[in-house]
Amino acid sequence: MPFSLEAYLEQKRLLVDKALHQVFRNPGNCPATLWNSMKYSVFAGGKRLRPILCLASAEAVGLPQAAALRIACALELIHTYSLIHDDLPSLDDDDYRRGRKTNHKVFGEAMAILAGDGLQTLAFEWVSKPTAYPAKHLKNLPLVVHELSHNAGYPGMVGGQVDDVLSEKQKPQLKKVLFIHRRKTGALLLASVKLPALLAGASRPKLKAISEYGASAGLAFQIVDDILNETGDSKELGKKAGSDRARGKMTYPAAIGLEKSKREVGRLTQKAVRSLKPFGAKAGLLIELVQYMARRTM
To answer: pTM (2 decimals)?
Structure first.
């Protein structure tokens, strides 16, 4: 039976959703409004691309699925927190995300901020539980937590968001756009494929190869987002189209134009595929995913 990427994506999305429901199975002493606010955004839909990349990487490096799912959930919690904060009036001021009202529009700004804080700390609590992993991988768990902290924090995602805000209304410069994109979006996508390799104790050549893949795939993903914000419509995107241009965001199309941006996506996709050579046939899923990310339309 031929491989169906669509079927694979749906299967893994459902698997990740099931795992995320386990994260939220017991609120404990969490205030009800905060709990509901966090769940509202985590289960607002979405393709679960970062967790799926994590699972595909785990298959390539031989990490058990149960361990990979632990990391995958943490990645999605951090991603969701970043979206909640990104949508706030003080940042991108978006009313809709994935086709429904953003968190602060439903629960208020204060609760949205706190929900983001709660999801970020829950992510680290979830990923760092020692008893969740096979004994042979435990020695590598501090490396995973450290790498996730680095990529999600000011050297990565948060730092990229800061520069994204500070560069609004400035003249677009490709060097600056690249610097922002590699951190704001690229860092967490890189972590999605690198963390399973770290936990599995992958060899240095394989760790280097999968990191190069993640860096290229992450940048290509954000350039596609830039293009879609220019060319898509609000219904397809699930949020306001043209918002980047309206806010004077530093984007690839603004810096080099749409056609050159599209060519750069192609170049980065090919680079990502080439980087996986050390994995041989085990890289098949990762290759399918980066090609899917390059051709997506919404």
So the answer is: 0.93
What's the token pair of residue 73?
């959930």
pLDDT in tens, the chain (298 residues): 678 999 999 999 999 999 999 999 999 899 999 999 999 999 998 899 999 999 999 999 999 999 999 999 999 999 999 999 999 999 989 999 988 999 999 999 999 999 999 999 999 999 999 999 999 999 999 999 999 999 999 999 999 999 999 998 888 899 999 999 999 999 999 999 999 999 999 999 999 999 999 999 999 999 999 999 888 665 555 555 567 777 778 899 999 999 999 999 999 999 999 999 999 999 999 999 999 999 876 4
Containing domain of residue 178, as a range?
5-295
Q: How many domains does the chain have?
A: 1
With b for 16 or more beta-carbon neighbours within 10 A and e for fewer, the 61-83 pattern comes to: bebeeebbbbbbbbbbbbbbbbb
CATH number for 84: 1.10.600.10
